[in-house]
Every structure is written in C-alpha cells, then in structure tokens.
Amino acid sequence: MKKITKGLLILGFLFLLSACQEQSVKINLAEVTRSLFYAPQYVALEQGFFEEEGLEVELQTTWGGDTTMTALLSGGADIALVGSETSIYVYAQDSRDYAVNFAQLTQTDGTFLVAKEEYPKFTWDDMKGKEFLGQRVGGMPQMVGEFVLKKHDIDPHTDLILDQSVDFANIPSAFQSGNYEFVQLFEPTASVFEQEGQGHIIASFGEESGKVPYTVFMTKESYLEDNQENVEKFTRAIYRAQKWVAENDASTIAEVIAPYFEDTDLDILTSSIERYKSQGSFAEDPFLDEEEWENLKTIMDEAGELPIDAPYDDLVDTNVAEEVMNE
User: Fold this and answer.
1) How far, in Å, are 114, 196, 274 from residue 132 at the CA level?
2) Is the preceding peptide bond at 172 cis, omega within 30 degrees of 0?
3) How far is CA 184 from the centre of its chain?
4) CATH code (residue 163)
5) Residue 115 covered by a domain
6) 104 and 220 part of one domain
7) Could you list the mean pLDDT of each consecutive 10-residue stretch along the chain, which spans 327 residues?
8) Domain interval for residue 233
9) pTM
10) Given CA atoms 61, 65, 67, 68 in this order, what sign does their dihedral have?
11) Domain membership flag for residue 15
12) Rounded distance, CA 94 to CA 88, Å?
C-alpha cells in the first residue's frame, strides 16, 4: 500500500511539473546589438523576472536595425529591442502589419564622443575640419550625432570630414586602425578605449540631445492583438527590472549582468553603468510619452530621415505599460 501511495505521489509530482512546463510561454526576443545600454533587459533575464511571469525568453542578437526588423516582420522574432525610428521606416512603407512600440527601455542616446587625443578644455568647435567616424545613415546614433552637432552650429557634412561607410560592428576597430580623430561609441567600448589609452571620452551625446525613445520593445500589431496577456507579462518583468536597476548601485548591477559581457572587466562594467545611470539613460518605467516621440521625429526630420509624419497614436501603444504600472 505504501509503495502504491509513494508511486502516486511521484506521478502527481511529475504531472504538476509537466503542467507547469506546458504553461510556460516561449518568446523569441531579438536585440539590435549587445550593449550595457540594455542593462535592465539582462537584469530581467538573470533575476528570473521573465520566468516568474511564466515566460521562457530566448534572446538573440541580430546586429543592426535592418536585420532586427527583418527578424521581427518575418516571424523570426516575436519581440524586438531596437531603435523606435525603425518602426517609422516600416510604417512609411505602408505595411499592413506594422511594428508597434509598447515598452521603452532607454530614454537618451547612449553614445559618447571619443577623441584620439586629449582635450582638457574641449569645445565642439574643436571638431571642425577633423575626421569624424560616424554611424550608419538613418540610424539613431548618427541622427542624434548630427542633431547635437547642428545644435553647436556645426554642419556634419561640410564642417567635418565625415565617414559613414563603416558597418556598426566594425566602427571600433576602424577607429583604432584609421586616421580618424573623433568617433561616436557606446559603452563599454568607450571606457575600454580610454582605459587602454586608445581614446578619451570628451562629451556625451545623451546629455546633449535630451529625452528620446532611443531603444524600445516593439512587436507586430497582429502579435500584440493576439498575445496581449503575454506582452503584459513581458512588460511587467521589464518594469520590475527597471525599478531594480534604479534601486541598486552600479557595482551590484554589473555583477548581475556580467555573464553577458564575459570579455569586459567588472570595473569597466561598473563605471560604464554608473555613467549611464548618472545621465538618466535607463528609463525607470516602460511608458513612452508623446513629448519624447515628438523629439524623436524632430531629430529624424533635421537629419533628413523622417519619411512620414508618423502618428504617436498609431505607432505607440501605452495601454500595456499603463496597465502594468497601475497594478
């Protein structure tokens, strides 16, 4: 009798375990690049916030806005973390199932101006006539870079020797080996260059450009309609991570997300995260407000890259964020 009872208990446990596993929903998430800028996302993964929502999130790095959006629109990814400007480009193509922004992760530009030489008393005029290795045409880093330069009365196409021919992934190595005097870099690359004496961080494009929905979680309109509950669970996990990042210091955050940056020293991770925290780059909630959206369109328009006056109400869905934040 005892053996039968024990067997039934084991079978019951296996049944419950199987049921729990069946309830777990898989979400394929594509990130545009691997960056410390996305620290809250890695916190959500490492701290088990997605798992606690019953989600199995599989992360893939798709390296570039175009490839990330292709993955999303083709069904290779359910959700994409990418610059919100990409959703405007898709919308302008009169797509029937366009990408909708539903949760904001970063709220400033994440790049820094790095110079080969030291500039103890740097002014933006120091860049005039110099070789500047820019980012790809139509991408947020380049558009924000141009916006900031114009703000300081510098025309990037006439006052600088501007090179935009290098692929995103190859920009750091091109700067190292080339004759460029300035470059626009994300962390931790900027700090690594500084530590190794290969460059000097002299300005922040994030501080200069103001708040903008720089990196946002988006999904196809059809996916959002058919999977509202799962998108809410995803956003709830991200919101928990955002609050966790806001409440913890840079060194604690660095220790948690270190597995995603195995080739970077912990002290560099810490200083880079602190730099982003100090300038308010990490959004503290997933809500993308209309003022930020309009700032994005202004930046794109000044760069000559705004293809259409993309309406906030069409491309931004705040219902999920508001639902999660009001719980």
Assistant:
1) 10, 20, 26
2) no
3) 16
4) 3.40.190.10
5) yes
6) yes
7) 53 49 86 95 98 98 94 97 96 92 97 96 97 93 95 96 91 96 95 95 96 97 97 98 98 98 95 96 98 97 94 97 97
8) 24-108+212-325
9) 0.90
10) positive
11) no
12) 10
